[in-house]
Design brief:
Elements (H helix, E strand, L loop, with lengths): L1 H63 L10 H11 L9 H9 L4 E4 L8 H9 L3 E5 L3 H13 L4 E4 L5 H13 L7 E4 L1 H6 L1 H12 L3 E6 L21 H5 L5 E5 L4 H10 L6 E4 L7 E7 L4 H15 L4 E5 L3 H13 L4 E4 L5 H12 L5 E4 L12 E6 L6 H8 L9 E7 L1 H11 L5 H13 L5 H8 L14 H4 L9 E2 L1 H16 L6 H8 L18 H13 L3 E7 L4 E7 L10 E2 L44 E5 L5 E5 L36 H4 L1 H11 L9 H9 L7 E2 L5
Parallel strand pairs: 1-6, 1-7, 2-4, 2-5, 3-4, 5-6, 8-13, 9-11, 9-12, 10-11, 12-13, 18-20
Antiparallel strand pairs: 14-17, 15-16, 18-19
Helix pairs in contact: 2-4, 3-4, 6-8, 12-23, 15-16, 16-21, 19-20
The protein binds adenosine-5'-diphosphate, magnesium ion (MG) and zinc ion.
The site of adenosine-5'-diphosphate has 15 residues, from loops.
Length: 728
């Protein structure tokens, strides 16, 4: 026992030592494991890095090759198809490069502005390659247009949609399965369908197996990216193409060109190496101009009438506005003034929408008054003007929408009507959207910039480098260079006053909307909000620009609050502090549209020279504001004085109509001739449609909230004054 005991003790000691040794070793292994795991992570990161670099390198190598040549084996055929099938004389920037790269079976991302001719970059290779081309496109209307145009030139193209005739769907599937590209060259489909239809995917697989799937094109490819301005969830499933059909080249095209979006798109589509082609975004034939939007509706309609009847007489265009209700109201008003326009928005039946679109395409109407529903894929070459009745919700949107003008390369005008209060109509809509507010604020910055060429501002936004020599005086800032500028000011004292007003409101336990804040500053509205200090001397429109500037630069901030009916925006102090050097701001001066802006006429119409006169929206247009218009002269200090012709400015008469309409002659509704011979009665019955729409329109898009009502009552505009600039 003793011996055993001794043995036990001995073994115990031995086991303890062994245990410790083992534990030590385990610890060492753990350490080593931790080291290796760490190393593994580092290596994985390196692998990703080198993979990306390799991808970048091969993309760069791809980019170094000169694609823009005609010494490929298919070049003679490419040239023939361009001329004989598409009836075009030559290629536009980056078209030939994209076509050659795709025909060499490389993946391509093509960034080109609206109207740059992106569709040709997949339509033409589709006719050169021996196989079927699949095009993913976000909208049926967009597909219909392209297919209609392709069929007209004898190309066999179809699309698949839920409402399609069964026989057509069956035959498309059959041709796909058979890889019968003689019977079917291009198939258009929405991303939603790609995601949902097994039948379609299996037909596509068969087509691929027989090596007859020539090309996959993805239109509006920025919809893949959450960074893009119209992200579509189903687009992210398109990554499946590269996995299932690795040998088929993919071309993605878009007019959105920010670097973030592009790298995101590449990842979503699983494109390893791809040629990125960038066509210049500058649209040298577009003239950019910002006008002050009248607060008084009648005056606003007069302004639009002036533009459409005189300046753009017999020319085709688009008026973009914010809400469905506005499209209907503005069309009604313009129709009553003998201007042929029709509304276009998402609440119209699709039949009605396409009818309106066709009438516009055929120049039976002069313009559509539309929400952004009138969007992608509009293909009218001779759009001479795009008027933004309300600013867009982002610069991307503005660029795309205004870019629908002048696709034929001829001079066209992009006019934006800016109004301070519109900021808050838009912000209360978009503050919950991803990047919604910062997108909107970029748009506001563009509008209130009194300093820089509009083109320069657009190019900066798209991270391109143009300088204002690219502008060729085709923007209001450059056209009126010297005359356009007001002096820069230090607005810190104004900022302090505004903060004092906000503090006062706080002690009264009230919150101020932007309107009430500006009212209080100008000693209008509720007396309890006003300070003892006198109101500013400068025009209210400059004061409003200052408040807008302070908001978009975070010296002031919008705070949003829901109530039962709507969302309200209140102004509070922002997180920026005034620097010692002061807050420098140069207000923008409102200018008239110059007289030499447009000379051409609507192509399908009888020709009549465009009015040569300047458009002056109020006093000279005969009727808009009869004899008592006041003219604003802006002094060198940036503060303006108002001189009136007959009686004093109505500036100080708040109340219903803002005291404005007393002196205003309402325009007589002209009924003598019927210029709408082509418009059917049901289309003219806008009043009825309007009431239907208003009933339907309960969604958040259109908020006639108390803030806006306020606005009509309290807002005292100054816009029947125009800045006088000699020798226009
Ligand atoms: P986007 O880039 O906006 O998709 P589209 O492909 O719709 O532009 O093309 C815009 C217009 O330009 C169309 O009417 C098209 O026929 C025309 N177009 C495209 N390429 C050329 C070209 N090389 N020569 C003449 N017209 C062209
Ligand atoms: Mg397009
Ligand atoms: Zn310019």
């Amino acid at each position: 026992m003793a011996a055993n005991g001794e043995d036990d003790t001995f073994e115990e000691i031995d086991l303890d030592t062994r245990l410790r040794a083992v534990k030590r070793e385990i610890d060492e292994v753990d350490l080593e494991l931790a080291r290796l795991t760490k190393r593994r992570k580092t290596l994985e990161q390196l692998r990703e890095k080198y993979r990306l670099q390799k991808q970048q390198q091969s993309s760069n190598q791809l980019a170094q090759k000169d694609w823009d040549t005609d010494d490929f084996s298919w070049s003679p055929k490419v040239d023939r198809v361009l001329k004989e099938v598409f009836h075009m004389k030559s290629f536009r920037a980056q078209q030939l490069g994209a076509i050659n790269a795709v025909l060499s079976k490389h993946d391509v991302l093509l960034l080109a502005p609206t109207g740059g001719g992106k569709s040709l970059c997949y339509q033409l290779p589709a006719l050169v390659a021996e196989g079927i081309t699949l095009i993913v496109s976000p909208l049926i209307a967009l597909m219909e247009d392209q297919i209609w145009a392709l069929k007209k030139i004898g190309v066999k193209a179809e699309y698949l949609s839920a409402t399609m005739d069964k026989d057509v769907v069956n035959s498309v599937h059959k041709h796909l399965r058979d890889g019968d590209y003689e019977s079917l060259r291009l198939v258009y489909i929405t991303p939603e369908r790609v995601a949902k239809s097994n039948r379609f995917m299996s037909a596509l697989q068969k087509c691929y197996n027989s090596k007859k799937l020539a090309l996959i094109a993805i239109d509006e490819v920025h919809c893949c990216s959450q960074w893009g301005h119209d992200y579509r969830p189903d687009y992210k499933l398109l990554g499946v193409f590269k996995k299932m059909f690795p040998d088929v080249p993919i071309i993605g095209v878009t007019a959105t060109a920010t670097a973030k979006v592009i790298s995101d798109v590449q990842k979503m589509l699983n494109l390893r190496e791809c040629l990125i082609l960038n066509a210049p975004f500058n649209r040298p034939n577009l003239y950019y101009h910002i006008l002050e939007k009248p607060a008084d509706k009648e005056e606003l309609y007069d302004m639009l009438e002036d533009l459409l009847h005189r300046k753009y007489r017999h020319m085709s265009g688009i008026i973009y506005t914010f809400s469905v209700k506005e499209t209907e109201e503005i069309s009604t008003q313009l129709l009553q003034r003998n201007i042929k326009v029709l509304p276009y928005h998402a609440y119209l039946e699709s039949k009605q929408r396409s009818k309106t679109y066709q009438k516009w395409m055929g120049n039976e109407i002069q313009a559509v008054v539309a929400t952004i529903a009138f969007g992608m894929g509009i293909d009218k070459a001779d759009v001479r003007f795009v008027i933004h009745h309300t600013m867009s919700k982002s610069m991307e949107n503005f660029y795309q929408e205004s870019g629908r003008a002048g696709r034929d390369g001829k001079r066209a005008d992009c006019i934006l009507l800016y109004r301070f209060m519109d900021i808050f109509r838009l912000s209360t809509m978009s503050f919950q959207e991803y990047e919604g507010l910062s997108n909107l604020y970029s748009m506001v910055k563009y509008c209130i910039n009194g300093n820089d060429c509009r083109r320069l501002l657009i190019s900066r936004h798209f991270a391109e480098v143009w300088d204002d020599t690219h502008c060729n005086r085709l923007c209001d800032r450059c056209y009126f260079r010297d005359k356009a500028q007001l002096p820069e000011q230090d607005i810190t004292p104004h900022y302090q006053t505004l903060l004092a007003i906000l503090r006062r409101a706080e002690t009264l336990q009230t919150k101020l909307t932007a309107l009430k804040l500006v009212d209080a500053w100008y000693h209008k509205g509720s007396p309890k909000n006003r300070l003892e200090t006198p109101p500013p001397l400068m025009d209210r429109y400059i004061g409003e620009q200052i408040v807008a500037f302070l908001i978009v630069n975070d010296f002031l901030k919008e705070e949003f609050q829901y109530n039962v009916y709507t969302t309200l925006s209140y102004i509070v102090k922002g997180s920026n502090f005034a620097p010692d050097s002061g807050i420098r701001f140069r207000p923008a001066r409102v200018l008239r549209v110059p007289k030499d802006s447009l000379k051409s006429t609507m192509s399908n119409r009888r020709r009549e020279p465009a009015s040569d006169e300047d458009i002056s929206f109020v006093s000279e247009s005969g009727g808009a504001s009869d004899g008592n218009s006041s003219k604003r002269r802006v002094s060198e200090s940036g503060e303006s004085t108002v001189t009136t012709n007959e009686h004093t400015s109505t500036d100080s008469v708040p109340g219903k109509d803002g005291g404005r309409s007393n002196g205003m002659k309402r325009r007589k509704k002209t009924t003598s001739t019927n210029p709408f011979e082509s418009l059917k009665t049901e289309e003219l019955d806008v009043e009825k449609r309007l009431s239907d729409i208003i009933e339907k329109e309960m969604d958040t898009r259109d908020k006639d909230n108390s803030q806006n009502e306020d606005e009509d009552v309290m807002f005292v505009p100054l816009n029947d004054e125009i800045i006088e600039i000699d020798e226009l």
